[in-house]
Amino acid sequence: MSQQIFKNPSIETCDFLDLNALSSLCNISPEEVRELVDYGAIKPMNSTTLEIQFSVDYIKPLQSACQIRQDYDFDLFSVVIFLGFLNRIEELEAKVQHLLATAHNEFPK
To answer: Are 35 and 76 contacting, i.e. CB atoms less than 8 angstroms apart?
Structure first.
């Protein structure tokens, strides 16, 4: 299976996003995306190629964090904090699902 780089925000099936696609989808500037990388909030998929690529997994949480930022007129660093919280919530939800599945197998009705 070949991997596709997502350069056009209208395409829905992809493996990676380039810098401009991610910034466009999340309604922030490419410079702000670079700042988020500098803060360690998001990590590029590659560090050796000229074109920075990001996992598509960043779309949903980054869109949510950027929407909160825009709604309440927060600064960019708040996006870093929101992303941390959103990632933690996702981890906890996965653990709850795992525990529910395990409990269901151990204690069937």
So the answer is: yes
Q: Per-residue DSSP letters for 70-108? A: HHHT--HHHHHHHHHHHHHHHHHHHHHHHHHHHHHHHS-
Q: Is the CB of residue 82 less than 8 Å from the CB of residue 64? A: yes
Pairing of strands 5-6, 16-18: parallel
Q: What is the pLDDT along the chain (109 residues), one digit of tens a residue?
A: 444 444 444 446 677 899 999 999 999 999 999 999 999 999 998 766 678 899 999 999 999 999 999 999 999 999 999 999 999 999 999 999 999 998 878 776 6
CATH topology of domain 5-106: Multidrug-efflux Transporter Regulator; Chain: A; Domain 2 (1.10.1660)
